[in-house]
């Protein structure tokens, strides 16, 4: 009989250690929370160092940042990048809520790490994503964390609203002209002088841009040390805090954590004589009335897009060099004057853009010439283009849409097959989850492409409609002898200025027609 001797396995001394990184986060930068962060950092340094099979790969931490969204957390994003660059093999974090309070973000991050073969250990919940059978448990816990975050947010909003109602809300970051002493707003004497200067200059008829330019020329810094602008001045002139009153909840955070201006969607609360005034109520109201009068003169409507069209070309002329808009100005030559359009960038700094002005009457003449060419040659240009629009665009979209429908059916069959293989025991749940998620993502991409094609079809239909309208006009119109503002607004999206002698009219039907001046 053969003699067999067992040789015991010896663990390799050169076995590669796992490179382990830890992630910590505190949601505010208060002293207590920062102490908590220091405790977390110390814990993980000792925890990782205590394992012989682990190697410390770094500690990533975010201070004073909410977990509601991952995109704002720079340390977390850096850790993900290091994982992609294969600098980390394993990640530890205190709990799901510290990792992310947003279900979608949490699952997306975990899936991305699993695709890189990097598990995550959530200490509090004792979940190791590298060994769990299903994402369901993680999804439930992550959803609970999100609910908790929403609950905390609602509690905070309720608390702030109560302080609005009883007038005890503290404005910790007051406007220019005031400081915060920890309890209330107090007047900053030096800045208050600038505030009074601004209101005084408005009351004697000076414009907001002129005031801003004068303050910059005098070297007066803004609250943050930057440059003054017309919009900054305009905002100050509308800020009731300079009269000693305060209106709470002029803005609010919506359900998606986006900050919005309160245009009546939420209650507002006014507290009279909240703090010391810098400007009298009479001067404040007079300045407001002057702003309204000037806005009415210029057809400016507050809160809507910004400007109504004062001239046919307003907002429609684009510089072909720097892509800035053009501004209308009046040029004087001896005893005569004429309207011209100038690039805003060139006005501010000639070094940044060399595009010189173009005359308003030259632009009008170029438009008349372009339209007369279309009227004369509409059968050679517009009719064939309309037929091409109608056939090519629609056919291509329909063909691709049918292709996607076939791919979606195939994707559904693959998912059903995958489910059968998993329930029959041919593949384990981890493989099933990974493959099924990929197929679901693929299906979602197909659906998005279908929506894009539908949107593209809508755009094509709009262009066909615009081209139809232009063709009908060209078929019946006589040659133009003068500029027609209504006709220009009806058919032209914008004018691109390539040079003082060459412009392009971008029509609403998609055509761009160049014209010499």
Summarize the structure.
By secondary structure, this protein is of the alpha/beta class. It has helices spanning 31-49, 74-84, 96-99, 103-115, 136-166, 189-203, 208-217, 230-237, 281-297, 344-348, 360-376, 378-423, 429-476, 485-491, and strands spanning 18-25, 54-62, 90-93, 120-122, 127-128, 178-180, 185-187, 246-248, 251-253, 259-261, 269-271, 317-319, 326-333, 336-343, 358-359, 492-499, 502-507, 512-516.
Would you kindly provide a written description of the structure presented here, covering whatever features stand out?
- About 4% of the residues have low confidence.
- The strands form 6 sheets. A 5-stranded mixed beta sheet has the order 2-1-3-4-5, sandwiched between helices. It has a 4-stranded mixed beta sheet with strand order 12-16-17-18. The chain has a 3-stranded antiparallel beta sheet with strand order 13-14-15.
- 49% of the residues lie in helices and 16% in strands.
- Among the domains are: 133 residues, Resolvase, N-terminal catalytic domain (Rossmann fold, 3-Layer(aba) Sandwich); 120 residues, Hect, E3 ligase catalytic domain fold (Alpha-Beta Complex), CATH 3.90.1750.20.
- The termini are far apart.
- The protein contains 14 helices and 18 strands.
- With 517 residues, it is α/β, with parallel strands linked by helices.
- The longest helix is centred in the last third of the chain and has 48 residues.
- InterPro entries: DNA_bind_recomb_sf, DNA_bind_recombinase_dom, Resolv_N, Resolvase-like_N_sf, SSR_resolvase, Zn_ribbon_recom_dom.
- It comes from Aequitasia blattaphilus.
- This is Recombinase family protein.
């Amino acid at each position: 009989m053969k003699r067999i001797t067992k040789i015991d396995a010896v663990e390799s001394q050169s076995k590669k250690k796992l490179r382990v990184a830890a992630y910590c986060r505190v949601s505010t930068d208060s002293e207590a929370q920062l102490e908590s962060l220091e405790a977390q950092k110390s814990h993980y340094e000792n925890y990782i160092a205590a394992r012989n099979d682990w190697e410390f790969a770094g500690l990533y931490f975010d201070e004073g940042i909410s977990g509601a969204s991952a995109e704002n957390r720079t340390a977390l994003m850096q850790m993900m990048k290091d994982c992609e660059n294969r600098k980390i093999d394993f990640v530890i974090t205190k709990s799901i809520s510290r990792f992310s309070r947003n279900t979608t973000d949490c699952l997306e991050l975990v899936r991305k790490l699993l695709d890189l073969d990097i598990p995550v250990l959530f200490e509090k919940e004792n979940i190791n994503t590298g060994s769990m059978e299903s994402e369901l448990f993680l999804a439930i816990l992550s959803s609970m964390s999100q609910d908790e975050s929403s609950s905390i947010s609602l509690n905070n909003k309720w608390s702030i609203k109560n302080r609005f109602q009883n007038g005890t809300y503290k404005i910790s970051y007051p406007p220019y002209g005031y400081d915060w002493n920890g309890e209330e707003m107090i007047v900053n004497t030096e800045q208050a002088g600038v505030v009074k200067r601004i209101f005084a200059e408005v009351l004697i008829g000076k414009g907001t841009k002129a005031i801003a330019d004068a303050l910059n020329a005098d070297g007066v810094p803004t609250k943050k040390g930057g440059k003054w602008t017309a919009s900054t001045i305009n905002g100050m002139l509308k800020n009731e805090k300079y009269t000693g009153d305060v209106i709470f909840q002029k803005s609010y955070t919506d359900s998606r954590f986006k900050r919005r201006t309160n245009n009546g969607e939420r209650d507002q609360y006014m507290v009279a004589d909240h703090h010391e005034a810098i400007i009298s109520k009479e001067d404040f109201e007079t300045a407001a009335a002057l702003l309204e009068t000037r806005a009415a003169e210029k057809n400016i409507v507050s809160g809507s897009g910004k400007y109504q069209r004062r001239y046919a070309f307003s907002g429609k002329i684009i510089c072909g060099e720097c892509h800035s808009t053009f501004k209308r100005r009046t040029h004087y030559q001896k005893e005569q004057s004429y309207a011209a359009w100038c690039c805003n960038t060139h006005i501010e700094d000639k070094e940044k853009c060399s595009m010189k002005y173009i005359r308003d009457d030259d632009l009008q003449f170029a438009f008349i010439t372009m339209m007369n060419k279309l009227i004369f040659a509409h059968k050679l240009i517009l009719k064939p283009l309309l037929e091409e629009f109608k056939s090519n665009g629609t056919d291509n979209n329909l063909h691709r849409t049918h292709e996607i429908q076939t791919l979606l059916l195939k994707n559904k069959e693959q998912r059903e097959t995958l489910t059968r293989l998993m329930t029959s025991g041919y593949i384990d749940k981890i493989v099933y989850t990974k493959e099924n998620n990929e197929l679901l993502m693929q299906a979602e991409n197909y659906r998005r492409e279908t929506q894009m094609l539908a949107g593209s079809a809508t755009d094509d239909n709009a262009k066909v409609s615009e081209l139809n309208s232009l063709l009908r006009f060209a078929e019946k119109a006589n040659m133009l002898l003068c500029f027609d503002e209504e006709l220009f607004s009806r058919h032209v999206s914008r004018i691109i200025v390539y040079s003082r002698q060459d412009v392009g009219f971008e029509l609403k039907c998609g055509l761009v027609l160049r014209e010499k001046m």
